[in-house]
Amino acid sequence: MEPLGPDDPGQIGPYRLVGRLGEGGMGQVFLGWSPGGRKVAVKVIRPEHAGDVEFRVRFGREVEAARRVGGFHTAQVVDADPQADPPWLVTAFVEGPSLLELVRGGGPLGVDAVRVLGAGLAEGLSAVHGCGLVHRDLKPGNVIMSADGPRIIDFGIARDAHASTLTAAGVVMGTFSFMSPEQVRAEVAGPGSDVFSLGCVLAYAATGRGPFDAGTIPAIVHRVLYEPPRLDGITGPLLPIIVGCLAKDIAQRPSIPNLLAQLGTAGIPAPGPTPAVASPPIPRRALLAGAAAVVGIAAVGTPAALLWPSLESKGASKRNEPSRLGNASARGTDPVVLRGPNRPETLVFSQDGKTIGASGTDGAIWLLEAATGRSISVAHVDVPKYVQPIEFSPDLKLLARGEEKVVRVFDAATGRAVDTLSGYTENVRAIAFSPDGKTLAVNAGGETIRVRDMTTRRETTLRSKVGPLDAAAFSPDGRLLAFGNNNNSELVRVDGGRSVAILKWSRAHSLAFSPDGKTLAIGGIDGDVGLCDVAEGRVTAKLGEEDMFSGPGMVYSLAFSPDGKTLVVAHAAPGSATVRVWDLAGRRIRTTLANAAAPVVFSPDGKLLAAAAYGVEGGVQLWKAP
User: Which residues, including other chains, have CB under 8 Å from residue 250's CB and lie 6 or more apart?
Assistant: First the structure.
């Protein structure tokens, strides 16, 4: 617990506040005392959301849902006022860490503890479903491991069991790593959806990782929809129980009563009197009061259409020898496949064109010799559960990696951590190095962009009018920053932070400036690309007439050739990846590259194009520029 800040309220309703327990993107959590002297946890909505009518309706629904649910394994609502300014909710204070904190601090639980956890959560879900509700966001952070058993908390997105899924304009509510396939597809999510999430939670408790974990949301979604769960390390009677919960077909999953019977009679020895939370030991830092999670706000706002695949190899073929590069077709149809990370998230040529940097979510940082494909160095860094954007500095000396609420910067050659940017309240969504490598721009949700001088480590703050942001890019002269999200894109001056233009191009996921800085390409989730005249501040042309489901898929990466005449567009859709080479003068597709995927990048002289290898063995493809 932290002390109250100077701007924190001292009292909410009749409850005196004494400390801060945590915060999320939409609310703050405080420890308080009731008039009768009982500890309570108080969720207070941020002022910027209090005036949002739609948000107040959703918050009111959370209050009513939480009040309707009783039982031994849920949190008790004490009081609430959804109409107050700001709205607030009070629950009984529950001592203990969340399951997320418990496992992170002490490692996976033993078999007996997982059985007890599963039975307690199943009983809690039974209470939820008995009220005609579906929780829809069961995850380790929403399970408090109190001394008298697990408690399910946070009913922020619970709805009637027969209601349509909680969406707005194609938006899915929930946390992807623990969502059911039907939630990801924005379909009706009934009680069976909570059973799927329960299977994910039990797998996490038993192994320390989610069964569909991956480094990016697209990869997670692909695994949830199309791949079997990863349950390495789970054996014995627990395995078939968890496998049953994680069936893709909702009709094949067990019911809650059936699960309770299985967990009680699965041949697993019954636990003794020691509570599940007694093993393993919990470090002091993990003993954050569980009430912070009890009143946490559910994650929201990720588009339902994010159904593109991970870029893992789907097959194997003989890797080309580097010497074949000189014989590659002038049309770029005969690439050389080099070693590298299995699923590169970023590719960069050094400024002299002699070196290629490649890195992905596996923690490996590869530096490759462009002429021969020889590995110059391969550094390895730890792999956190959540890895978002990854970017090299232009000179390939540094690698910046967005993690859970921080950005860590590494020496690319050695893997040594050299800098950490912290203090974010949300996970990092977009990062970008300036062309000279002296500046790093970071967005971690919302509209705020922190711009860091990499030499002095001083920071300035810019504010976007279109946030929260999903993409960022510097202009070639470093004077402008382009931002994009699901609604619009924006150009902002780095010096002074003045907004230059709002670009009416929705569903942007990737951005790239032309070498002369006159054009900004904006890649959309729908598969098309907008070409923006930077001086005029408006989109003047469009490439493609595709959509996410019938076309080549979302635009995942863009690359201009050094002469600005060619734009390479990398798409991804369920089970496929497509890289198209556009002739900008004729607005036509010149060629399509086989077995290539995002990211894509040209060498400085324009003679080579690097792309991720897709469907073949290896990590990086080198093409003679089309």
Answer: 180, 182, 190, 192, 193, 196
Residue 175 half-sphere exposure toward CB, CA atoms < 13 A: 24
Q: In the predicted model, what is the mean pLDDT of residues 11-23?
A: 86
- Both structure tokens of 476: 């070639």
Q: One-letter amino acid identity for 138?
A: L
pLDDT score for 322: 35
Gap between the Cα atoms of 444 and 1, Å rounded: 23
Q: Has 533 been annotated as catalytic?
A: no
Is-contact 12 29, C-beta < 8 A? no
Residue 400 near residue 428, CB atoms below 8 Å? no
**Which tens digits make up the pLDDT trace of 548-560?**
444 677 788 999 9
- Band (149; pLDDT cuts 50, 70, 90): confident
Per-residue pLDDT tens over the stretch 285-301: 222 223 333 333 232 22
Alpha-carbon distances of 59 from 64, 169, 258, 299, 357, rounded to whole Å: 9, 19, 33, 13, 46
470 or 541, which is more confident: 541
* Count of C-beta atoms within a 10 Å radius of residue 333: 14
Is the pLDDT assigned to residue 220 strictly greater than 70?
A: yes
pLDDT-derived band at 574, boundaries 50, 70, 90: low
CA atoms within 13 A on the CB side of 21: 29
Indicate the Cα dihedral angle 183, 185, 187, 193, nearest 10°: -30
Cis peptide before 468 (omega within 30 of 0): yes
Find the radius of gyration of the CA atoms of the chain: 25
DSSP symbols for 268-325: PPPP-SS-GGGSS---GGG---THHHHTPPPP--EETT--PPP---SS--PPPPGGGG
- State the average pLDDT for the chain: 77
Segment 517-534 mean pLDDT: 89
At 407, which amino acid appears? V
User: In the numeric block, which tokens belong to residue 185?
Assistant: 């597809």
CA dist., res. 600 & res. 330, Å (int): 18
Q: Report pTM.
A: 0.52
Interatomic CA distance for residues 21 and 32, integer angstroms: 10
Three-state secondary structure of 24-71: CCCEEEEEEECCCCCEEEEEEECHHHHCCHHHHHHHHHHHHHHHHCCC
Question: What span, in angstroms and rounded, lies between the C-alpha atoms of 77 and 88?
Answer: 11
Helix (H, G, I), strand (E, B) or coil at 401: strand
Element (H or E) spanning 130, and its range? helix 111-130
Cβ neighbours of residue 499 closer than 8 Å, sequence gap 6 or more: 464, 465, 490, 491, 492, 493
CA distance 331 to 449: 41
In order of their start, the domains of the chain are 97-303 (1.10.510.10), 381-607 (2.130.10.10)
**Could you count the other beta carbons within 10 Å of the beta carbon of residue 371?**
14
Residue 36 makes CB contacts below 8 A (sequence gap 6+) with none
Candidates 7, 79, 81, 137; catalytic one: 137
CA-wise closest residue to 378 among 359, 396, 400, 391: 359
